Amino acid sequence: MDNKPSQQPVRPQLPEPTLRRLPWYLAYVTMLPPDEEYVSSTRLSRDLGVDASRIAKDLSFLGVKGKTRMGYNVAELENALTAFLDFTSRHRAVIIGAGSLGAALMRDNGLSQYGMEIVAGFDVNPALIGTQVCDIPIYDVADLAAVQRSTGAPIAILTVPYQRSQQVADAAVAAGFKALWNFTPVRISAPDNIVIVNTSIYAHLALIYNRMNSAPDNQ
Amino acid sequence: MDNKPSQQPVRPQLPEPTLRRLPWYLAYVTMLPPDEEYVSSTRLSRDLGVDASRIAKDLSFLGVKGKTRMGYNVAELENALTAFLDFTSRHRAVIIGAGSLGAALMRDNGLSQYGMEIVAGFDVNPALIGTQVCDIPIYDVADLAAVQRSTGAPIAILTVPYQRSQQVADAAVAAGFKALWNFTPVRISAPDNIVIVNTSIYAHLALIYNRMNSAPDNQ
After folding, report:
1. B136 or B2: which leads in pLDDT
2. What is the number of CB-based contacts under 8 A between chain A and chain B?
3. pLDDT given for residue B216 in this prediction
4. Do residues B105 and B162 lie in contact, with contact meaning Cβ atoms separated by under 8 Å?
C-alpha cells in the first residue's frame, strides 16, 4: 500500500464506541484554559456525561492514566489523543459520486482539518467528467483503477445513488481501494480485509423524527 | 409545536440500532424486482448480513410479521417502513453555522428527499448574513428566536466551530427548537425534553484511520 504508515506504531483495534468518544475528549481538552495542568476524572465525567470508569477504560487503550487526587495531565492527554486519532497525518481519499452530497463533501474543508485529503472525484455523468470542484478533478468511474494507482489513495468515499452502492463498492475493491466510507443507506459487503465504515446521515434523520414523535413534549 | 404530527400515530421509541437498520431494509426492498411478492427472511439475512432473528425483532416494532415458508410481503414491508421512517413528511430545520459543512448541507438535496426541508441558515459572519445558499436565507444568529417563531422549524442543525457548540446549543434551546442535530465533535448537553442526535462525520475518520492501521493487510 502506497501510504503505508511506516513511521506510525501499529495501533490496537479499538471498540467502535471508544473511537466515537475519543474525539469528544480531544475537543474537550483543547477547549480548556491554557493554565489548567490537570483535569479531574470527576469533572471530565460530569462535563461529558460519560461514566468516569468508562473514560478511564477508553484512555487506558492510549496508555494514559490519571494520577490520584490530580486527574489527567492535560498536555499528556491532548498529545496522546492527537497522536492516536491521527488527524495530523495525510490520508488520501477519492469520492465516487460527485452529485449533491459528494460535491458537498469536496467543498467541506473540515475533512482536511481532520487529515483527509480528497484527491479525486468520480461520476458517470458526462457533464461532470472533466470538470473540477474546488480544484478536485472529476474522472469517469471507468478510470477508478488507473487513478487509484496514480494517486495511491487508499480510501474511497461512496456517495452514489443507493441503487448503485454495491456495484460501486465492488468496483472500488477491484480497483485497489482498501477502505470504503459508505454514505449510502445500503448495507454494502466487501472482502474481510477491506475496511467499511458507514456514515448514515439519512438514517440519522429517522432517529430524529422518531425521537421527536415519541418525546412526551411533542404529543 | 407548530408542526405537531396531528395525523401521525404516536410512534414507540425504538432502540437506536434498530433505527439505524430500518433504512437498510427500506433501501433493500425498493431495489427488489417489481414482480417479487415475497422476500424470505433467510435471503434478507444473507444479503444484509443481519441475523434473521434480529430482523424479525426489528420489524415486529412496525407490526410486520413474516409468513411461514413465504417470508415477508414486499409491498407490506415497503409501506410499513416508508410510513414509519416518515421520510415523506415535511420536517422543517435550520442550519446554525453556514460555513463549510453547513453550506454543504444546504446544497445537498438528499436531505429533502428524506423529508428534511432546510428553511434558514444562521451565522455570525457579517459577510454571510443577508446572503443566500441555494435560495436559503442566512440570518444573524441573534435572530434565532424570531426565525424559529416565524418558520415553526423544530429542528436545529449545528455545524458551528466546535468551540461554540454548547453555547449555540443553549441558544437554540432558548429560541424554542425541540431537536438538535449535532455535527460538531463536542458532546453537547440540553434539557431532557430536547432531542439530541449526534452525527460525528469526523469521529468516523478516526474509525477509518484506526481500522486501516490495525488491518492485518496494512501492516
Report:
1. B136
2. 224
3. 53
4. no
The domains of chain A are located at: 16-85, 91-204
- Strands A195-198 and B38-39: what pairing? unpaired
Residues 6+ apart with CB under 8 A from B7: none
Calculated CA dihedral for residues A33, A35, A38, A40, nearest 10 degrees: -40
**Domain spanning B16-85 has what CATH number?**
1.10.10.10
CATH architecture label of A91-204: 3-Layer(aba) Sandwich (3.40)
Terminal alpha carbon distance of chain A: 54
Given this chain, do its domains B16-85 and B91-204 carry the same CATH topology? no
Best of B213, B214, B217, B219 to substitute, by most chain A Cβ atoms within 10 angstroms, is B213
**Element at A39 (helix H, strand E):** strand A38-39
Question: How distant is the Cα of B158 from the closest Cα of chain A, in angstroms?
Answer: 14
B18-65: pLDDT as tens digits: 988 999 999 899 999 989 999 999 999 999 989 999 999 999 999 999
Q: What is this structure's pTM?
A: 0.83
Cα A139 to chain centroid, rounded? 23
CA atoms within a 13 Å half-sphere pointing along the CA-CB vector of A132 = 5
- How confident is the model over B160-175, as a mean pLDDT? 95
Residue A215 pLDDT class (50, 70, 90 cuts):
low
Which of A43, A111, A188, A212 is best to mutate for the B interface (most B CBs within 10 A)?
A212
Q: Which of A73-77, B106-110, B127-131 has the lowest mean pLDDT?
A: B106-110
